[in-house]
Amino acid sequence: MMRSPMRVVVCAKQVLDPDTVDAYAVAGRLEVDPNSGELLARGIVRLMNAYDEQAIETALRIRDAGVDCMITVVTLGDESSRRMLQSAYAMGADEAVIISDAAYDDCDGLAIAKALSQAIDKLDGADLVLCGREASDDDQGVVGPALSELLGASFASIARNVAVESDETLHVTRVTLDGDEIVALALPALVTVSNEVGDPRMPGARAMMQSRRKSPTVWSAADLGMDAGDVRSHVRQVGLAVREVHGDCEFMPDASVVEQAAALATRLREDGVI
After folding, report:
1. How many Å apart are CA 42 and CA 195, to the nearest integer?
2. Distance (Å, rounded) from C-alpha 270 to C-alpha 267?
3. What CATH number is given to the structural domain containing 57?
């Protein structure tokens, strides 16, 4: 049975701005550090993963629907994550936690899920955990499902709507290739949220100012009762390369719109596109 207020935990990740990364790649300016194998992020800002913003928006809509809830945002990161969490506070989150420890620097999705599960346990559990469907930097979508397994929570993925139906049940509208699918989940539950939720709310200037006076709680691996074995990664990145991007633009000859359309259709058929 759900406690009162309902404990909603949103897991968030700080990523490199994907639009800037794409622009750098097209311009041939995206580089990989030969020693660390990581992207050189000079001039690329870090921000909250967009799917995770939509997960926060989902939590706030649950509150807007009249559910008494405490919204906590948890991230695994470092001091630079504070700015991202200010945005979460400004949106309407009640509290935030940073899991910060050098032991997590190279951990994989399963180790991240383990750390998040320990943090949620330290928060005295959660009725509902919301995650973005995936992160824009690795596009793996591993953490959410793994975290639900570790928490022993019921699970639904790729949600565009989450509604609390009772003290024991959620209704989740999932996005599928065949259309919407509505499933009932018993609490506690974990749901991964997709972009079909829609744009997250934009906090006003007053909310942004107030968020600067709020500070997240910071926990280390030791604070979570984890040792080196718990942080062990099962997946190791052995290389990273930037794919060369080649542009090849061909302009249709000067003609009427009808003639240009006919020429384009002919060219697409010749290339096997249509």
Report:
1. 28
2. 5
3. 3.40.50.620
Residue 257 lies in a domain: no
Q: In the chain, how long is the greatest CA-to-CA distance?
A: 72
The answer to whether residue 16 is domain-embedded is: yes
DSSP state of 20: H
DSSP H helix total and E strand total for the chain: 8, 11
Residue type for 194, please? S
* Domain count along the chain: 1
185 conformational bin, left if phi > 0, alpha if psi -120 to 50, beta if neither: beta
DSSP strands (E only) in 100-168 = 128-132, 154-164
Rounded to an integer, what distance in angstroms lies between the CA atom of residue 113 and that of residue 110? 5
User: In terms of residue numbers, what domain contains 142?
Assistant: 6-231
| 66 CB burial (10 A radius; 0-12, 13-18, 19+) | exposed
Q: What is the pLDDT along the chain (274 residues), one digit of tens a residue?
A: 677 899 999 999 999 888 888 888 777 778 887 777 777 777 788 899 999 999 999 999 999 999 999 999 999 999 899 999 999 999 999 999 999 998 888 788 899 999 999 999 999 999 999 999 999 888 889 999 999 999 999 999 999 999 999 989 999 999 999 999 999 999 999 999 999 999 999 999 999 999 999 999 999 999 999 876 677 777 777 777 777 766 677 777 777 888 888 888 888 898 888 8
Within-domain flag for 260: no
Question: Other CB atoms closer than 10 Å to residue 7's CB: what's the count?
Answer: 20
Nearest to 155 by CA among 187, 123, 108: 187
Whole-angstrom Cα Rg for the chain = 22
Question: Is there a domain that residue 237 lies in?
Answer: no
Distance of CA 211 to the CA centre of its chain: 21
What is the SS3 assignment for 107? coil
**What six digits make up the tokens of 147?**
């975290």
